[in-house]
Structures are given as C-alpha cells and as structure tokens.
Amino acid sequence: MALEDLKELIEIENGTVKITDIGKMRERMDSLVYEAITEGDDEKRKGLFILIKEIAKAGGAIPASIQSLYESMGKEYPGFTVPAMNIRGLTYDVCRAVIRKAQELNVGAFIFEIARSEIGYTKQRPLEYAAVACAAAFREGYAGPVFIQGDHFQLVRKYYLKDPAPEVEYVKGLIKEAIEAEFYNIDIDASTLVDLEQPTLKEQQRPNFERTAELSQLIRDEQPEGIDISIGGEIGEIGGKNSDPEEMRAYLDGFNEVFKGGKGLSKLSVQSGTSHGGVVLPDGSLAKVSIDFDTLKEMSEASRKEYGLSGAVQHGASTLPDDAFHMFPEVGTSEVHLATGFQNIIYDSPHLPADFRNKIYDYIKSEFSSEKKEGETDEQFLYKTRKKGFGGMKKDWWDLPSSVKKPIMKELEDKFGLLFKELKVIDSKKMVDGTVKPVLVNKEIPGNIL
C-alpha cells in the first residue's frame, strides 16, 4: 500500500506530527507497521519506524521512564509487582493483546522489554521494538506512558575475558542505540563478571559494580533532558546459588562508592532459584521449579530499607505454575520478568496449524543443528531453540491469517489477565499517572518518507 494516503490522515510541520483523522489513522496503523516490518531498504525501514513512533506519540502513547514510580516504591511498597514482558514474536499483535487487557483492568504498571540476546535472534532492533510497542498502544486507543526496557544489557563473560574493550564498547553502542530509540528503562547485567576466586564479597563483586557504574554513567550522559532513565543492576548470575543480603550490600556499597553521576540504581535483580526458559526434561515437559520466596522477601526489604531501591527483581518466572505468581507481591518483589511462557502459548496453541509449526521446526533444525548437545532429545532441543524461530521467519509469522492469530491472542489475553490479577497491578493506573509524567522527545522524521 502506498504511503500517499497518510497525507489525508496526518500533517508534518517542522518535523512534528499532527493527526488529522485519528480514527482512520488507528485503522491504517496495522498496514503501516506491516510495511515497515517487511521493507527491504534499511534506511526507509528506519524512517518508517520513526514515523510510526511519532504518530503513536502524537496520539498519546509516549515512551517513558518508570523511575519516579520506583522511587515511590522505594519509600512505601504499594503491594504490587510490575510485570516486564519480553515479546519475541508476533510483537504487534501480542502488544495489542497486552494493552487491551491492561485497559480492561485499569493497569498502568507494566513494561515491554527485550534483552540483548533477543534483539539478535528475534531480529528486532531497539527502534523497531519501541515503534511497534507504541504503535500497538496507539492502535488500541491507549494514552499514557509506555514503559520500554532494555533487558539484560549484558557483558558476555567469554567475550569479556578474551578482550574486555570490544565487549564493553558493544554494550555501550547498544545502550546509545536503545536510548535513541526511546528505551527509557535499561537493565545492566555485569553479574557475569563476578570473580568468585577473590577472598571477599566486595572484591568478588568489584568487576560487576565497576562496569555497572561505568555503563550507568553513559546512560546518564546520553539520556534526554528532563528524563531520568530507570537503571537496574544484577547480582545473581555466577555461582549457581541464591543471592543473599551480604552479597547485595557488597555490590550496592561498591556501586555507590564508584558512581557519582546523579541518580543511581532503581532496582536489583537477584537469583532465587529460577532459570531462563525453565528446565526442560527429555520428553519436552518442564521440570518443577523451587523458588526461594524467602530470599526475594529478604532482598526486597533490605534493598528498599537500606538503599531506597524499589525492591528485588525476579527473572525467569514465566514458566512457573499459575498459582505461584501471587507470591511475588506478597514478598514485596518490585518487578518480575516474563518471556518464555508467552512464547510457549504461541507455539503450543491448538490454533497454530501443525504444518506451520513443523515449517518453523524444520527451519530451526536446519539453521541451528550445531546447537544440539550430545544426549539431548529432539524435544529438548526444539524447546530450547524454538525462540530462534521468530527472527528468520518473521514475515511468515506476520503473514498468518487473522483466523489463526485472533484465537491465539485470546489465549494470551487470558494469560495477561491472570498475571495482572496475581501480581496485583489491577487498578495501578491511578498510581502510575500520579507518579509518572511522560516527557515528549520529538524525533526528526526523514523528509522523504512521505
């Protein structure tokens, strides 16, 4: 579809978008996003995503930092846990499903996020992810802050030990790209660098907190005027044991000694017994997870009382049983990260045609066969690897007919509703609106895009 018709729906004056027919523009957004996703020319695709995001912002869906809400949580815990959702595939449709359920339940405290690794294998650069999330919010008539987060902006241990400089520079480049795309929430993960051979907790954590401070300084230097990006830290990667308060204090005290660049961390990710994606058994089913809620409670209370953080953050939780989620707000968890469970609903839905699923699996077996470990069953390999079936087959997923996507989105909506209820974020919009005031940052739209 040509873009000429957009001139009847929007006006661009001095680089700023004004929507002249918001109803028709909402309807037109579906095809506009698809055009951007499938555009072969890199520069034109980038221009389309900027245009999409500016239209969404003109309609009231504005990228924002959750910092001020988390500062409030650091003073008094509000009794809810913020869900941070990694959307790996069918992103526009899934984000729309999140927004629909959020509006139905008056939820304001929720985050769309994507990790460094996911940016690679789902082929969603920060600008695309932010534009699609904002477009979904606009399409559903949502007005207010849209929290978009860089999850696990991680220093990969094997690359770092080989040569720290290029690894640090890569993450710095990713941070700059994400901020330019209006990710105003970024989680730095240097916990991979913890050195357990050192004699004290502080020295073990030193590579972690020093690099986190360095990257936090970059974030503060790059953030737009009037915005304090929410920065998260992490301590729970190395060692295979659950985090404890002494480890937390060693990390946070060290960070606060080194970092002098304004507001510090707003939250802290810890290890409490989960693993990303869950542990898959030989038959393809998931092993039961034993999560240490006492650790989460202890860490949340200590980080809030002693350091003013919003609390502890839980990763790798989406594959937990439904009856476990109510525990997160009960123990004062500030944020929980959810990803694989949504992917599983899409892949395992009875509404996904078997021939399509097999087509994706054939692609995975062909492209990623080298990742299959010795002794691993096909079921284990496919479960572990099917997250990589979204990026290289993105257009195939997007081309699925609405008769397939619509019932899958209904399944996801039901899941989002359950999570919002169990995490107690229903009716959280009032608190979000009272603490978060989005700052509009205009981005220049390429002159030749229309």
Give the end-to-end Cα distance, rounded to a whole number of Å: 12 Å
What characteristic shape results from the CA principal axes? globular
Q: What is the fold-level CATH name, i.e. the topology of the largest domain?
A: TIM Barrel
Q: What share of residues are in beta strands?
A: 5-15%
Give the structure's gist in a few sentences.
The chain has three domains: 3-58; 62-345 and 402-435, TIM Barrel (Alpha-Beta Barrel), CATH 3.20.20.70; 350-398, no CATH class. It has 450 residues and is an alpha/beta fold.
Describe the structure.
The chain is α/β, with parallel strands linked by helices. The chain has three domains: 3-58; 62-345 and 402-435, Alpha-Beta Barrel (TIM Barrel), CATH 3.20.20; 350-398, no CATH class. It has 18 helices and eleven strands. Strands 4-5-6-7-8-9-10-11 form an eight-stranded parallel beta barrel, surrounded by six helices. The chain has a two-stranded antiparallel ribbon with strand order 1-2. The relative contact order is 0.16.
Element layout with pairings:
Blueprint: E1 10-13, E2 16-19, H1 22-38, H2 42-58, E3 61-64, H3 67-75, E4 82-86, H4 91-104, E5 111-115, H5 116-121, H6 126-139, E6 144-154, H7 157-162, H8 164-180, E7 185-189, H9 201-222, E8 230-234, H10 245-258, E9 267-270, H11 293-307, E10 312-314, H12 327-330, E11 335-338, H13 340-348, H14 354-367, H15 378-385, H16 394-398, H17 402-422, H18 429-435
Parallel strand pairs: 3-6, 4-5, 4-11, 5-6, 6-7, 7-8, 8-9, 9-10, 10-11
Antiparallel strand pairs: 1-2
Helix pairs in contact: 1-2, 1-6, 2-6, 4-6, 4-17, 8-9, 9-10, 10-11
